[in-house]
Design goal:
Layout lengths: L18 H5 L4 H9 L3 H23 L2 H17 L10 H25 L11 H4 L6 H14 L4 H11 L5 H8 L3 H18 L7
């Protein structure tokens, strides 16, 4: 089955080798251990292993290649600076993605503030419809446009929670971890956004 959203690489760079091409035998736990020991090679290995995952997540959250590139850079800078704060050596990937979500929230809020002050354009708004695979049907594109309008009516935290759940496909527990909130808060955010989305799609009894 074709993916709903087209895959792409960070801008301004050649396709990056996959983790298996770098060092398939090195586990995340071993990689973190090397980072803690100050191994310079481990820093590059960390970046190359997870840059695609972080960039794809950032792109779907903020809808801008330039912003996604900046989020990737800020995420890995923060991760390498604070690697000693990683509580579980096996939790490297969710820890990185949580940092990326936090960086995306900061950038998204800053973009909204600048637009309210007159320093941004309306077409800067992120769009899920713009990220969809080109082979998608016109009906699906139209539905995503409705979803985009609904997501403009909610807070940044609610928007990101919905995308993590329904676009990225994370479980509720994972969404709560990545959003750095309680499970109850994640559920409450999703329930509210679902009401807006269903209403935008024409479900009169959605709210």
């Amino acid at each position: 089955m074709r993916p709903l959203f087209a895959e792409s690489e960070p801008s301004g760079a050649a396709p990056l080798p996959r983790a298996t091409q770098i060092e398939s035998r090195l586990t995340d736990q071993e990689l973190v251990t090397r980072l803690l020991e100050g191994d310079r090679w481990a820093k590059e290995a960390l970046f190359r292993r997870y840059v695609s995952s972080v960039w794809s997540l950032a792109m779907r959250l903020v809808g801008s290649r330039a912003d996604a590139d900046d989020i990737v850079q800020d995420t890995f800078v923060e991760a390498l600076r604070d690697v000693t704060a990683l509580r579980s050596l096996q939790a490297l990937r969710p820890w990185l993605l949580r940092i990326a979500v936090h960086q995306a929230q900061r950038r998204f809020r800053r973009r909204n503030l600048l637009r309210r002050l007159g320093f941004g354009a309306a077409d800067d708004d992120p769009s899920l419809a713009a990220l969809i695979d080109p082979a998608a049907s016109p009906e699906l594109c139209a539905e995503l446009s409705c979803v985009d309008r609904a997501l403009q009516s909610v807070s940044v935290a609610e928007r990101f929670t919905w995308i993590l759940r329904h676009v990225e496909g994370h479980t509720l527990e994972e969404v709560a971890v990545l959003s750095d909130c309680s499970l109850a808060t994640a559920k409450r955010r999703l329930q509210r956004v679902n009401g807006f989305v269903l209403s935008a799609l024409g479900h009169e009894d959605a709210r």
